[in-house]
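Sat 14:20. Reprocessing the chain from the morning session after the first attempt stalled halfway. Input below, unchanged.
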Amino acid sequence: MPSPIVSFPTLILSRLSAPAPLDSFEIATVEGRLVRLDFGALNAPALAARFGSKPDVRHEPPPAPVAEALAAWLEGDFAPAQALEADMRGTPFQLRVWAALREIPPGETRSYLQIAERIGAPKSVRAVGAANGRNPVSLVVPCHRVIGADGSMTGYGGGLPRKIWMLEHEGALKPAPQSAPGSQGSLFG
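Finished this time. Tokens:
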């Protein structure tokens, strides 16, 4: 009797250029499903471990729907990126947080407390922050739209300059006035 054929998933790693401070979109897909979207180099071994097998890793352009949605987002059309489906793997709590994040419309923000209240766990603000930080698909699950309860720009895995740029791009923040050349600006106006 012949041995059964074992097939492993194909992990496609892609990079698309983006304006500064984003620099590039780092994308991972498996069988056409988005599994990672970030701004830093992707860790192929860590991604492969998510699938419990040894995937075939290839460097190719991303699937057209992903590339088109990201291009649309850069042009100010946010709906295609929000509509992308993603293969989200996480704890039940993380999945609830990520689902709540997907409900935040472009041009708006929510606090960690508001997200905790939305998922019915108002005392879990820190856990919401931790789940937000573990989000595997930036933009699609818009973790950059979460801010401190006092309106402050809190930590962001991709760096605060990226978070601020994305919130300005989506209209949630007004762009900061540019300082005169050679000026250091002022925190106090």
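Residues 9-87 form a domain with the Double Stranded RNA Binding Domain fold (CATH 3.30.160).
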